[in-house]
Amino acid sequence: MADTCQTSSKPRPKYLGLAEILFQIKLPLPGKLSILHRVSGVLLFLMLGPLLYCFQLSVTSPADFLAFKSFAANPLVRLLLAGLIWAYLHHLCAGIRFLLLDIHVGIDLVSARQTTVIVFIVSLALTAFLCWRILL
After folding, report:
1. pLDDT digit string (tens) for 6-20?
2. DSSP character string of 20-84
3. Spatial contact of 109 and 30, defined as CB atoms under 8 Å apart
4. Average pLDDT over residues 67-85
5. What is the pTM of this model?
6. CATH number of the domain bearing residue 95
7. Which of 95, 83, 74, 73 is nearest to 47 (CA)?
């Protein structure tokens, strides 16, 4: 009786762990934008509760506002707020880009790369401007 189990000449797929995915695979810039869009969305979702609590402190009473103001004066809190401002602006700009791609605007390779660079530049520039105006 002939052996029915034949070996395949195809190489077995390689499992990539998180370290390999982050440091060995070279993603194109639109891929990095997509990952950062997801990360910023998760970050904003996870920080929604603390942000609403801080907002409540800032509008409840003058004493609570002063407590919030002294809390927000901490450099680590300012750094966290700057990161949240960036996450919001990046998520907004990338979301607009993805909506345009959904209606087939800028879908060719050259314009997709250009809009990726535009999203990074605009979100970082707006973050720098708002951090300069709000946090300093």
Report:
1. 666 788 877 777 777
2. HHHHTS---HHHHHHHHHHHHHHHHHHTHHHHHHHHHHHHH-HHHHHHHHHHHTSHHHHHHHHHH
3. no
4. 94
5. 0.81
6. 1.20.1300.10
7. 83
Dist CA 75 CA 56 (whole Å): 21
Q: Is residue 97 part of a domain?
A: yes
Name the 3-class secondary structure at 98: helix
Separation of alpha carbons 31 and 109, rounded Å: 13
Tokens 């407590």 found at: 67
Neighbours of 71 (CB within 10 A): 12
Q: How far is 101 from 119, CA to CA, in rounded Å?
A: 13
Residues sharing a CB contact under 8 Å with residue 81, sequence separation 6 or more, in sequence order: 72, 135
Consecutive H or E run containing 120:
helix 109-130
Residue 56: inside a domain: yes
Which range marks the domain in which residue 51 is found? 27-135
Nearest to 133 by CA among 82, 59, 66: 82
